[in-house]
Amino acid sequence: MLEDGLTSLSDADLADARSCPDGAWSNNAPIGGVSAPIRRPTKTVMPSNPVASRSITRFIARMNGSDHSPDAALNDAIHAVADCMDRSAFKVLFDHYGPRIKAYLKRSGASNDQAEDLTQEVMVSVWRRAKQFDAGKASLTTWIFTIARNKRIDSLRREHGIHVELSEALHLEEASGLENNGEINQLSRQVAEAVKDLPAEQRDLLKIFYFEEKTHSEIADAIGIPLGTVKSRLRLALGKLRTALGAGQE
Amino acid sequence: MTAEITTDDLLAGYAAGRLAEPVALIVATHLSLNRVQARRFAAYEALGGVLFEGIEPEPVSPDSWERLAYRLDGEPIEKKSSAVASELPCPLSDYVKAPLSRLRWSSYGAIAEVALDVPSNQFRTKLIKVKAGRSVPRHTHDGQELTLVLEGGFSDGRGHYCKGDLVIADRQVDHSPTADDECDCLCLAVTNAPLRLTGAFTRLLNPFINL
Question: Does B5 contact A188 at a Cβ distance shorter than 8 Å?
Fold first, then answer.
């Protein structure tokens, strides 16, 4: 079924017809009445609670090298931020994710300055929403990618006169239906394996699909292959991924 | 020949941030109602994370951390968000400004509908209510129609759909959905072109009603 879908799927079917070259969400509609729920700032959390000090201890232990897993260190860092506004933990997150966020934003068409500014916005969101990160719903990397993606969409919307933040109104960070941390880790590992096994040309196409603002025909022009090949390659890549995850038989 | 867009196309497009707002809204609401699809979606979302982790990092400017640290002063950590009780599932509930009974429904026989204001220059978004046991006039589509069942259920000859099911119809589908007998059926619908009525009599009504 995926095969059939992607052979005919054009971005125009799903994204609005665009008036500017770089916006999947480009939209000439008048500013809509969508209002985002306003989240009230909450009181500062004092680091005196036991959960907080536990996470600091855990964090310091990781930093001292008692556990060398970088994922575990990053996960502890987000909890230290959530529990006690720990800035040194946040610096660890920034050092790892900041350059990736910037790379993603530039790839999606932002200038260097825009990418710098938006990276800051993404990281401020990570700070503010640290308590909402749920390791049982998504990996930290996926969660941060989602925030970066939403910020990019919001900035495109601002360029088109829509000043409501979609990330607040629509893009939940917790859409995933997974049950627990173990499942999340397993899924991430399986997906990473499946991506590694793809031919380079299919992997590259997935990156374009996820990172860039191009329509399918713009992708075809950019890499000099026919539109049909773009679609069939995407179809193949996503199909392989689903087969690798055991979901391909549906 | 036009093949149909599949649910997987929608899930991948949503994970990649490529969907127009009305389409993203219906997909997000579908995911909040349907755990099976939400689990399926997790793979597309994880794929975004995996690709993001592998991206070639781009050095940030030397004063970047300093600027960020400065901004953190006065930035609180928000409380864990708690779900607010609503007649409608999240995130659709954020788009509907009044209780359902106080919306300005337009009625056509057994059908009542109300347009929602979701910014788009191509898609229209509405809530549609069909009385228990009654049918929507036979119609086909010039473009795509996405329908998400919010309450009750309906059948259209291709299948039976209940709460949380997302139905994709395009120009190949000529159908006359009928609501289940037990209760009224409430749906969220996103269309990218007007429907064409195809029943013998209703065809005459085509230019006048905007179903």
Answer: no
